[in-house]
Amino acid sequence: MMQISPDQRAIVAVTGATGYVGGRLVPRLLDAGYRVRCLVREPRKLAERPWRTHPDVTVECVDLVNGPLLTELLRGCSAAYYLVHSMESSGKAYAEHDRALAGTFGKAAATAGVGRLIYLGGLGELGAGLSEHLSSRREVERVLAESGVPLTVFRAAMIIGSGSASFEILRYLVERLPVMVTPAWVRTESQPVAITDVLHWLVRCLAVPQTSGATLEIGGPDVLPYRELMQVMAQELGLPPRVIMPLPVLTPRLSSGWISLVTPVSYRIARPLAEGLRNRVVVTNDLAQRLMPHAALGVRDSIHRALERVRSNDVNTRWSAAGAVQGDPKWAGGTMFTDQRSIEISASAAAVFRAVCRIGGGHGWYAGDILWRIRGWMDTLVGGPGLRRGRRDTERVEFGEALDFWRVIGVEHDRSLSLLAEMKLPGIAKLNFEMASGTNGTTTLTMMARFWPRGLLGILYWYSVLPLHNIVFGGMLRGIKRAAESGQGLVIAK
Predict the structure, then answer these.
(1) According to a count of CB atoms within 10 Å of the terminal CB, is the N or C end of the chain lower?
(2) pLDDT on residue 477
(3) Is residue 78 pLDDT above 90, yes or no?
(4) Fold annotation for 6-320
């Protein structure tokens, strides 16, 4: 067999590489022998991915609104995956935003001479009753096709995989509610598909020319209503059958609010997903199987594999890491309150860093956990994320990831960790940990809480919580000291 040099192999562009599907697609493409060019807004989100240092990967920083830069970065690419969705917007805003981004991307791909585009959209029956969420996906398909670049469209229903928003909604509803008063959509038929099968077809299509320009519906072998899907989940979780009582009065608005209260998924994400659930989403043609025969996993096997990933702490990507990492707002340049504390720890900086990286999720916050839970509950009531998001990995953290209602905005191994608060606040809050090595193997850990108030309400908020800082922050430092000195967290890998 003739050996192909790296320079002769195809370059494939991937947008959304920091997202749930894109983050898993890149290593699959590398395994298949392609060179991959990741087009992302925030390259730091990929810094800890195992494939980031692969010689066939390049990461380019670009906002998809920048047409000229996109054009330059797409030159030389034989194909480009468009895996971008504005899921956290609401109303018409996310649909308009998605349409504009798709138009810019399509024009850039055409100008750059890209050979084909691949887009992952949603299944759903056509007609006046199509949800706004699914209608937006169809509109993106249309806009990309208008670019003139051959477009391969994949349409899928619920994607079952550890870390996906749909899967976590299903898991948490079943785990937490033995009795459910549900919307009528639990009777709607769906044809879920495992993430591993989605990735197979996304990669395989590049080697099948007939898929260029085709619309391909993909799904697993099982078609079942959501209420049956919930019962399968209960069985795989080792739980008794759930009692499910559908009520027609629960609108998508109420449904998404209910999902937001019970699961880690925010209202802004739950709303479009809940609206989409009212549509029957099943495969209506077998073109994908005829062009790319593949034995897809059934629902039970898909759920079983996803749960095994969760239990073994092997969740590669998660819905909560997607989206922009916000910086300081324009009004944050004035008054700033600080609370700085330090403690000397008889452990190496690496051990201290590992202990710091365990905060949040199931580990808790080392001290004042009841206060953290109360704050999380209050945040949930006013539409914030609360503590429901947890964390993707029990030990490791990456830039851009969620830790309960915080977001990682800076990480330097064995040196520092910076967090941005995403709970509802009358201002902006950051929490920073710095490690400085001392003599005789000691480390000084400095924690600084910073708060930029927004108006008088923000100032009043700071002074109202200030008395609790010694319990929460002082206790956290002492807890980190105990953990580091006792050697907890030594399994973390750099």
Answers:
(1) N
(2) 92
(3) yes
(4) Rossmann fold (3.40.50)
Res 6: pLDDT: 40
**Domain ranges within the chain, ordered by starting residue:** 6-320, 325-486
CB 139 within 8 A of CB 96: no
DSSP per residue, 23-54: HHHHHHHHHTT-EEEEEES-GGGGTT-TTTT-
What is the Cα Rg of the chain in Å? 24
List, in sequence order, the alpha helices (H) in 76-115: 93-112
- Cα–Cα distances in angstroms (integers) from residue 362 to residues 357, 358, 359, 403, in the given order: 12, 9, 8, 10
3-state percent breakdown (helix, strand, coil) of the chain, nearest 5: 40, 20, 40
DSSP string, 115-162: SEEEEEEE----STT--HHHHHHHHHHHHHHTTSS-EEEEEESPEE-T
Rounded-to-integer distance, Cα 252 and Cα 134, Å: 14
Q: What is the CATH number of domain 325-486?
A: 3.30.530.20
Asked if 262 and 176 count as a contact pair (C-beta separation under 8 A), the reply is yes
